[in-house]
Amino acid sequence: MAPDVLVLSKVNDLLREEDDLERIELLRNDLKKERALVGSQLKIECDKRIAIITAVLENLQASSKDLKNLKDNLSKVESLRQQSISNINKYELFDKSSVVYSNFEKVVATYNNFVQLEQRLAYVDQLLDKELPENDYFPEDSPAESLLPIHYELNRLRDFKDELMHLSETSRAGLRSIVVQSFLRLDGVVARFEHLLRLIVDNFVSIIGCSNFGLIVKLVKILEFEEREDLRLALMNHLISQSKSKDEMAVSRLATYVKRTAPRNYKNLVYGFFRESIETSFEAIVQGSDPNEVLSIIEENYYEILVAYKVGSERGFPASWKFFNKILEWYQNSLRAVVKRIVADPTLPSSYIVRVLTFDYDNAQAIREKFGFTKKQVEPYMLLSTDERKRLLNECLEFNVKKTREWAENAFGPALKLFSTMEKEPSDSSSEKLGIEMAQILIEILRSNMNTLLDAGDSPILIEYLQFFCAHFLRQFYDRWIEALENGAQQWNAAAEAPDNENIGWLPRYVTILANDCVRLVNGLENQFKEVEQMVHSKFHPQLKSILSRGTQHVLNLGTECLVKLNGFIVVEYDPYLSEVFTKRWYKSDEMVTTSLQIVHSYMVPLKEYLDAELFESLFELVYDTYLLHYLQALNAKNKIDTKKFESVMERDGHLINTQFSNYVENTQIIEDHVYIFDILIYLATFENEQQYIDAWPGYLEVFNDLPVDFLRVVLECKRLKDSRIKFIVGECMHISKLYKPENFTPTFMSNFKAK
């Protein structure tokens, strides 16, 4: 459809009715507004397009300029490239010219150095003459002002020699021979310089002692320079060996940065001087000296020397060198060689072994304390390895055990022989020894060996020795004396019939002396162990207490056996008299009791005087209880009890016994407590019916917790009761005893009553 037709069609749609004509003006206005709006938008879009086109044109113009500049620069680069190629060709020419000029300079310098060689060597010799002492003792206060100039000149001369030797390698043999001959004197001068360094090293400690640190700094500066030059040489050789360049000129140029052709190792040389000086000083000490004297000489100034080196190291040597650690290592190595040489002797006495062990321990402690080393840091410097130290400790322990046995045997023999023969009368003075006393000897043996092992500085070995002494040796001490006591007791008992030893009467005094000796031995053991506790770590204290307890128990058992034997001697004499108790004669006379008490008195008085106070208290209780038991054991004779007289006679004996035994102790409570058994016996003898026994028995158990019913049965038998009544009463009382369970059960002497 044509555009006009479309327009007319739209107009026709708008003007279909009359009212639509009125809207023409409105439509016209709307169209004008629409037209204005469209025109405005078109203008804006046109302006944007024009701006974009303008920017594009400007960019094209700038690009054109840049392209022109780029072309100009490329022309310049090409010009420079052509110029560079020309310069390289010129540089090669100049470089070759420079090398030729340098060679001319080297030739001139070489000629001048060669001409002045003797003069320079003579100059260095003069400086060395000035510094080198005549007697090879370098003065500790010398400033050594020529030391650095000597080293400087020698370094230049040696560099010159290395250079000529390197050049002569490609020359004819005759020329090389001339070079070698020309520098023969230099080798001697170098040797003199190195000798000077050795003398300084030999007197290093004295140099530090007078605070001549300037000399030390000079020495260190020489070593630092030499180390640095050797390092440069090593680096140069490494670079040359790793270089992929085939350009010999480049390699040759690299070699010009280092003058020397071989490392001179001055640092290692001087370190070697230090090590040799240390080793030589130890060799001089060891030659033909007693080991103990050797260690004493070393101890005199060993650590002072190390302290001096420590000071010198801190004041003059670089920290990275760890110079003092090396010195300490060399000293300890030399000292270790001395120690190993000493302990290698198979005939070395134990005292020397302990001396070495003590020296090793003290050495480690001194290094830790004086130089601030930790325990782990000290380990590499230890003189003895763990295995070596353990071996020596075991040897020392074996030696001490062996010597303990030997010394003790030397004491045992005479003591046991004297005890057996009793050929010497005991003195009335307690201060005068009889000859069977061993406590002091054993304590001295123990103290000597303990001190030896304490000096060795190893607590486990000391504990092991104490274990031997207390568990084995004191057990042997107990066994041998028990055998001697048994033999003595047999002689005593046999003496009543046919005495074969006229001195048997001294046996109680011998046993008394032995018992007192046991007390001294126990006290000595406790004192020694207290000293040990103060010297060993607390972790060993429980073990020490256990060992001491075991050892003292052997001695206490022997002391107890001595008391038993003393009591036995008394019993043998009074028992025949007590066997007549409860007989018809007993009711009429107190003679048998009085006589028996006199026998007891004849023993107790001297025993109280000579026996240790604590032992006497124990003996008194034993004698008293045994006496009462033997008195009551007479009931086993089954003599009929005379109930009418029994109470009065028992009271008589009770009074006699109470009075007699009260003379021996101040505290008579035990006498009163135990003699109450007489009251019980009186009651049992006077009861008339069964119920009285049954009712009274619990009360008796309160006094004597372990009162045996056999005692009751014997009394009833002596009363001549019928068997049925005895069986009933004993049965009821036995039932009561079984039910009786006191809170604090206390054993009494009545538990030892034996009915027959």
Structural account:
GO terms for molecular function: SNARE binding. This is Exocyst complex component Sec6. Residues 14-87 form a coiled coil. Belongs to the SEC6 family. The chain has 756 residues and is an all-alpha fold. It folds into 5 domains: 22-112; 125-264, no CATH class; 268-382, no CATH class; 393-563, Tetracycline Repressor, domain 2, CATH 1.10.357.50; 624-752, Orthogonal Bundle (Tetracycline Repressor, domain 2). Helix content is 78%, strand content 0%. It has 26 helices and no strands. It has helices spanning 3-14, 24-131, 147-168, 173-182, 184-202, 204-209, 213-242, 248-255, 266-286, 291-316, 323-343, 350-371, 375-378, 386-421, 439-456, 459-495, 507-535, 541-578, 584-588, 591-610, 613-633, 643-661, 669-686, 690-703, 709-718, 723-739. The protein starts with a helix and ends in a 17-residue tail after the last helix. The mean pLDDT is 84.
SS-derived structural category: mainly alpha
Q: Over all CA atoms, what is the radius of gyration? A: 59 Å
User: N-to-C terminal Cα separation, in Å?
Assistant: 163 Å
Strand percent estimate: under 5%
Examine the coordinates and then state which fold CATH places here, giving the name of the CATH topology of the largest domain.
Tetracycline Repressor, domain 2
Q: What string, H for helix and E for strand, traces the elements in order?
A: HHHHHHHHHHHHHHHHHHHHHHHHHH
> What helical percentage do the residues reach?
over 70%
Output the number of helix runs.
26
Got a strand count? 0
Detail the poorly predicted runs.
none
Biggest sheet layout: none
Q: Report the mean per-residue pLDDT as an integer.
A: 84
Instruction: Tell me the domain tally.
Output: 5
The CATH architecture designation of the largest domain is Orthogonal Bundle
Q: Quickly name the level 1 CATH class of the largest domain.
A: Mainly Alpha
Looking at the structure, what is the overall shape?
flat
